[in-house]
Design a protein that fits this description.
Helix content is about 25%, strand content about 25%. The strands form 7 sheets. An 8-stranded mixed β-sheet has the order 5-4-8-2-1-12-15-14. Strands 24, 25, 26, 27, 28 and 29 form a 6-stranded antiparallel β-sheet that branches. It is globular. By secondary structure, it is of the alpha+beta class. The chain contains 15 helices and 31 strands. Strand 18, helix 3 and strand 19 form a beta-alpha-beta unit.
Length: about 600
């Protein structure tokens, strides 16, 4: 009997050309060798995985047309991000322009200095053919300014040299959009972490960048995390990884991908060879390393261990899950902890960072109104669309989620005598739900499976913690949980310091109230968020937030003052009774001098 050989489907083929650097335009084409007989439908994603907000990327398509065999093909727009091409015989090609002027990690940006794009912003999805191979020809700009540009991406090369323009390939659409691309004159270095090449790509002017220190620190972080998830094999779930960073005057953010991360940071936060630092990193550099650690941890926790609703993603509508406290919050717990385990910071610095997180969670009354499970579910409409009332209405699943991870870790360690830790739970999640997720899309984990796994691995019944702190809104009893480990938690808020109890920002006229905290002095007096305070008891308030602190330092708690403020264009006066400063000042320290705590930074036995 003669064997039937199945013919391989030709790849979906894209080209992307930085057409107009000054006009911020990419030219993109997509060619479909075998379009749907009844008319091929195309759609651009409405959001990008890892950033839970509908962003409607299709709004940046300037113009679009279709052709087949040299003849124009009619396109019908179906909704805000979808088009249907008329039925054709033979290959179908769409030509379109993308406006790229979003300097963030989420979309696309193009000018004379560099180009950057996420696939979700530029590559129309060919509905029904998402599982086919996808190729993309990344072409060099014709502008002379770009003659020395290179390309950085974790996508596999097909007809291109590493860091070069040419054709790259992805197994499917999901993989295609999970490899952002940076092009330009960037600083580049490579290190190996447990045998896997890791590239550092820095775009933007950074005089005297200390790349050697950055390589050493990132290597330590990456090896600590690879060892964390694979303590026996030290095997990373990828062939190569790229840290791509845009350095700007003032910026901060990151977005995870399966084999890379896109970062934006202040250039002052990067290490400088002209003023080398010894010992632990300074505040800015420490913040950057924490960001890198966070996004790298996502290589396991959310890129491969996923909520069930993300396997696969529906890129046209919101994908609701109550589990972001686990995927973002637990990642936020481990990001700084990995700096300790990598030997970059010591326990005192770690406890200081942890104290800041505790204070930030206790600051807003929203923590008593919204659970982290609800915050996760409502990320699309609340967390990613914050306004001036957010501290009074919501809780961050990042920050409180990290403290919930801490609470689980301390509880498991204490009740099992250190035999089990949260590390064991994370490794079980990895082994069961993440390790084999790719190359084909595996299945994600449900809320019920998460809770059952915690009990199974720890050997404990942890339902109460889920009810009170994940699904409930109770404050975590951290001081009590820390006690068995020789760590003392102290709330040092200075109630004797007079305060408006509001978030203060700059404005040319005076001090802008960015937030007015519920129950505080400003709220009780009738002041509102966005009011601009111009005087306190007849003395001018300038645009420096420290000026209000200086003025209020002349008063005691309980004193009455008159506050003049503009609300819109109306000048208003408020009689205000000063209250004590309610901003939590949390310190964590070893309860016994010289005693080593047995808890947080030390990994559990594999």
């Amino acid at each position: 009997m003669k064997k039937t050989v199945q013919k391989k489907q030709p790849a979906i083929h894209y080209t992307i050309v930085p057409k107009d650097l000054a006009g911020h335009l990419f030219n993109v084409t997509v060619t479909v060798p075998a379009p749907a007989p009844d008319g091929q439908v195309f759609a651009l994603p409405a959001w990008i995985p890892g950033s839970y907000m509908i962003r409607e990327f299709a709004r940046n398509i300037v113009r679009i047309r279709a052709e087949s065999n040299g003849a124009a093909v009619a396109l019908t727009k179906l909704d805000k991000h979808s088009w249907r091409a008329a039925s054709v015989d033979g290959p179908l090609t769409l030509h379109y322009e993308i406006y790229a002027w979003d300097l963030s990690v989420r979309a696309a940006h193009l000018d004379q200095s560099h180009g950057f794009f996420n696939g979700t912003s530029v590559f129309l999805r060919v509905l029904g053919q998402e599982d086919d191979a996808h190729e993309v020809d990344i072409q060099r700009p014709g502008d002379p300014l770009a003659k020395t540009w290179r390309v950085a991406t974790a996508m596999k090369e097909l007809a291109a040299k590493r860091y070069g323009f040419g054709t790259y390939v992805a197994a499917n659409y999901d993989e295609l959009i999970d490899h952002p691309v940076e092009m330009g004159d960037f600083a580049l270095a490579t290190f190996k972490a447990h045998g896997i090449a890791h590239d550092i790509v820095i775009t933007g002017r950074v005089p005297n960048l200390d790349m050697a220190r950055l390589q050493a620190d990132l290597k330590a972080i990456c090896e600590a995390q690879i060892t964390f998830f694979e303590p026996q094999t030290h095997r990373a779930p990828l062939e190569r990884y790229v840290f791509m960073t845009m350095a700007v005057g003032d910026g901060y953010g990151g977005l995870e991908h399966r084999a890379s991360t896109a970062l934006i940071c202040a250039r002052a936060d990067l290490p400088c060879s002209a003023t080398p630092q010894s010992g632990e990193p300074g505040e800015g550099y420490l913040k950057f390393l924490g960001l890198c650690s966070h996004e790298y941890f996502h290589t396991w926790n959310v890129k491969r261990i996923k909520p069930a609703v993300f396997a696969p993603y529906d890129l046209q509508v919101e994908n609701y899950t109550p589990l972001l406290w686990l995927f973002e919050g637990f990642t936020s717990y481990y990001d700084d902890l990995m700096l300790v385990r990598a030997g970059i910071i010591g326990e005192p610095t770690y406890l200081k960072l942890l104290g800041k997180t505790v204070g930030s969670v206790l600051r807003g009354s929203g923590r008593l109104k919204q659970s982290v499970a609800d915050s996760s579910f409502d990320a699309w409409s609340k967390y990613y669309r914050q306004d001036e009332n957010s501290p009074n209405a919501i809780i961050s699943y990042y920050s409180k989620g990290s403290l919930i991870a801490l609470a689980f870790d301390l509880t498991i360690r204490a009740k099992t005598g250190g035999a089990k830790t949260l590390d064991d739970v994370m490794r079980a999640l990895w082994q069961r739900y993440g390790r084999d997720f790719y190359p084909s899309i595996g299945r994600g984990v449900t809320e019920a499976e998460v809770e059952a796994l915690f009990d199974e691995v720890s050997g404990l019944k942890l339902r109460t913690l889920f009810d009170k702190f994940v699904r409930g809104t109770e404050d975590l009893p951290l001081a009590k949980l820390f006690a068995p480990f020789g760590i003392k938690l102290v709330d040092e808020r200075k109630n004797g310091k007079a305060s408006l109890d509001a978030g203060i920002g700059r404005d040319p006229l005076g001090a802008k109230l960015n937030q007015v905290h519920e129950g505080g002095a400003a709220h009780a007096a009738g002041l509102s968020a966005l009011d601009i305070v111009i005087a306190i008891d007849g003395l001018r308030v300038n645009g420096n937030p420290a000026n209000i602190d200086a003025l209020l330092s002349r008063y005691r708690v309980g004193d009455k003052v008159t506050v003049h403020a503009f609300r819109r264009d109306e000048l208003m006066a408020f009689d205000l009774t000063l209250q004590g400063d309610r901003v939590p000042g949390i310190t964590l320290s070893q309860a016994v001098a010289g005693k080593k705590s047995s808890a947080l930074p030390r990994p559990s036995a594999a």
